[in-house]
Automatic annotation (TrEMBL):
<dbReference type="InterPro" id="IPR004561">
    <property type="entry name" value="IsoChor_synthase"/>
</dbReference>
<keyword id="KW-0413">Isomerase</keyword>
<dbReference type="InterPro" id="IPR005801">
    <property type="entry name" value="ADC_synthase"/>
</dbReference>
<feature type="domain" description="Chorismate-utilising enzyme C-terminal">
    <location>
        <begin position="194"/>
        <end position="447"/>
    </location>
</feature>
<protein>
    <recommendedName>
        <fullName>isochorismate synthase</fullName>
        <ecNumber>5.4.4.2</ecNumber>
    </recommendedName>
</protein>
<dbReference type="GO" id="GO:0008909">
    <property type="term" value="F:isochorismate synthase activity"/>
</dbReference>
<dbReference type="GO" id="GO:0009697">
    <property type="term" value="P:salicylic acid biosynthetic process"/>
</dbReference>
<dbReference type="InterPro" id="IPR015890">
    <property type="entry name" value="Chorismate_C"/>
</dbReference>
<dbReference type="InterPro" id="IPR019999">
    <property type="entry name" value="Anth_synth_I-like"/>
</dbReference>
<dbReference type="Pfam" id="PF00425">
    <property type="entry name" value="Chorismate_bind"/>
</dbReference>
<comment type="similarity">
    <text>Belongs to the isochorismate synthase family.</text>
</comment>
């Protein structure tokens, strides 16, 4: 709905209300490729873009530019910080009939107390933004909104300027000749601290057998070098084509793109429903349909993987039983098969208590035992001592929420941090008493596959 916002100079009581204003305006952009729109933002807005596909591909979101950036460096209060900043913005939102609710997109780091490197510079403990231009593709239709946050009194002129930029990006997205997404030429793959990882898994298994914890997720990273710089829109295009059953996310900051294809929902709040998923316990896909079926059946009946999975169901079930009414949890897991891997999977649903919002669920759930361990307070220190890497945003919540309380966060696994002509890939696995280091190592290779393939890497087997 096109409107010429005139800044509110008098509040309902007729008193002067100056300060922060938040306007949104939705344009019907007809049919538009979200990835083409993302690419159209390359020149002006590289480093300030976001890309999202939900798991069943009923929603794609693109954020171009930052109307406002919301960050927090607080180790403990980061979730409350983001909520307070977002609520303050939404309290001054001007949205008219026909305008879509503006979104806030971004993510959290896995562990603000474990930041041993500057690998993740530009990704603070909480990193969110209101997109200046927001594309949403849902129900087969594409909408583009312009969001404007301003303290000034020039909203009308600002909007005029933004409309022209938006119009040219829509035009470019519709008419540009898009070359088929090229994959980078990989010149090297470096397994960082491979022996340290194997040693750590052995050590942690011993500490679990000694009763220090019941489960601890240990991860590792590998570094890819390319002949030349890779372009974010091409990588996301590859991933979108190759990973049809996973969430897709891409979050830029400065010269970095954090991206991935994850099967793991953390939590969605949609029309008064809270939905999450327990995803833990893994095995590779078979080379034939019958081998695939055998491997899946074996996973469903494997004691080690079932125990790995049950820790996640217990914890998430506890959170949902205390945050929701009418909690629904199936009696046992089923298989979740995505392109490169199959998991034990238990969906959990409930009706949120009125005093619980999306960030309450994110804060309570993160990290689930699928990425941290059980008990959490024992597992996190063991991860800090044992992992030779900086998880940054790997394994943490990434997603979006809108001004009406709806939104969705996924767990940022099957992911990588791309910068120029290099990328760092992250993968881990749940370690329990009867874990075997070599088997966990092989499992991480299966988990590297989605991003390794999208980055042009060689896949073993
Ligand atoms: C820690 C990862 O996967 C988690 C999610 C699904 C299955 C898992 C597993 O079987 O170990 C992990 O808990 C990762 O992909 O890096
Ligand atoms: Mg596992």
């Amino acid at each position: 709905m096109k409107h010429n916002p005139t800044p509110h100079t008098t509040g309902s009581a007729g008193r002067q209300v100056s300060g922060l204003h938040f306007y949104t305006e939705t344009i019907d952009a007809g049919r538009l490729s979200p990835l083409a729109f993302f690419e159209a933002g390359e020149n002006e807005f590289a480093g300030r873009r976001f890309y999202w596909e939900n798991r069943d591909k009923t929603l794609k979101l693109v954020g171009i530019g930052h109307a406002m950036t919301l960050t927090s460096d607080a180790a403990d209060g980061r979730f409350a910080d983001v909520r307070a900043q977002w609520q303050r913005l939404c309290s001054v939102l001007v949205k008219e009939e026909g305008d879509l609710p503006p979104v806030l997109f971004g993510g959290f780091s896995f562990d603000p107390e474990n930041h041993p490197s500057d690998e993740w510079k530009g990704f603070p403990p909480a990193y969110f933004a209101v997109p200046q231009f927001q594309l949403a593709e849902k129900g087969g239709r594409t909408f583009v909104s312009i969001n404007l946050v301003t303290e000034g009194e020039t909203a009308a002129e600002d909007f005029e300027r933004l409309r022209l930029i938006c119009e040219s990006m829509i035009h470019e997205a519709q008419v540009m000749e898009r070359t088929p997404a090229q994959k980078p030429e990989v010149s090297a793959l470096d397994e960082l601290a491979r022996s340290d990882y194997l040693e750590a898994v052995g050590e942690v298994t011993g500490r679990i057998r000694a009763g220090e914890a019941e489960k601890v997720v240990i991860a590792r990273s590998v570094q890819l070098a390319f002949d030349e710089a890779a372009t974010p829109s091409s990588i996301l295009e590859n991933l979108s084509a190759e990973q049809q059953e996973s969430y897709l996310f891409g979050l830029e900051s400065g010269s970095k793109l954090f991206f991935g294809a994850t099967p793991e929902r953390l939590v969605e709040i949609r029309d008064g429903q809270a939905l999450t998923a327990c995803v833990a316990g893994s095995i590779r896909r078979g080379k034939t349909a019958s081998e695939d079926r055998e491997l899946g059946e074996g996973l469903l009946h494997d004691p080690k993987n079932r125990s790995e999975h049950q820790y996640v169901v217990s914890m998430i079930g506890d959170v949902f039983r205390s945050f929701c009414e009418e909690v629904r949890i199936p009696a046992g897991p089923r298989l979740l098969k995505v392109r490169d891997i199959q998991h034990l999977f238990t969906p959990v649903e409930g009706i949120p208590n009125p005093d619980k919002d999306l960030l309450d669920f994110v804060e309570a759930l993160h990290p689930t035992p699928a990425l941290g361990g059980t008990p959490r307070e024992a597992a996190l220190p063991i991860i800090r001592e044992s992992e030779r890497m900086d998880r940054g945003f790997y394994g943490a919540p990434v997603g979006w929420m809108d001004s009406e309380g709806n939104g969705e966060f996924a767990v940022a696994i099957r992911s990588a941090l791309l910068e120029g002509s290099g990328a760092r890939l992250y993968a881990g696995g749940g370690i329990v008493a009867d874990s075997v280091p070599e088997e966990e190592y092989e499992e991480t290779w299966v988990k590297f596959r989605p991003v390794l393939r999208a980055l042009g890497g060689k896949l073993n087997g």
